[in-house]
Amino acid sequence: MDYIERVRARWAELLPDVDTAPAETGARIRRIAGLLEAALAGELAAHDVSRAELDVLTALRRADRPLRAGEITTMTGSPGASITKRLGRLERDGLVERAVHERDRRGVVVALTDRGRAVVDELFPRQVEHERAAVADLSAAERAELARLLAVVLRRLDPQDY
Predict the structure, then answer these.
(1) Do 84 and 114 fall into the same domain?
(2) pLDDT, tens digit (0-9, with 9 covering 90-100), for 37-92
(3) Whether 4 and 84 share a structural domain
(4) What dihedral angle (degrees, nearest 10) is formed by the CA atoms of 112, 115, 116, 122?
(5) Which pLDDT band holds residue 106 (cuts at 50, 70, 90)?
(6) Single pTM value for the model
(7) Domain range for residue 27?
(8) Based on the structure, what is the number of domains in the chain?
(9) CA-to-CA distance for 23 and 98, rounded, in angstroms?
(10) Can you give the CATH number for the domain in which 127 is found?
């Protein structure tokens, strides 16, 4: 019995008329995400970067071009005010730099510095390794099926095409 099964059993005792089966998937996803975050936490702390800040850095790295803050907001799914705060901290730490947009002098874009790129290039592979270890007991076919099923759920909740 895993943690989520124990939680569902307890809710069945407390609220027997509530079918908790639909929450089972989401609860497992949240639990797995939390455990993966905890596994990476020490490596993030060594670089004085939070998980949310790493999301900003990886969005910039994937784009491989300067982005407007609004683009980063869309890509990370974080509120604009949060992105502004994260960008300020990342800029102070020398991981990103802001510049006036070449074509639209009114707009500001954000780019990774060489140091920011190095941090992403070190931390992202470590994140992937933690995720690889998490699914190590699944066959390649099972991993593909799990990814396919989760993609169906994600498309329902997040239908945007980034």
Answers:
(1) yes
(2) 999 999 999 999 999 999 999 999 999 999 999 999 999 989 999 999 999 999 99
(3) no
(4) 140
(5) low
(6) 0.83
(7) 1-46
(8) 2
(9) 42
(10) 1.10.10.10
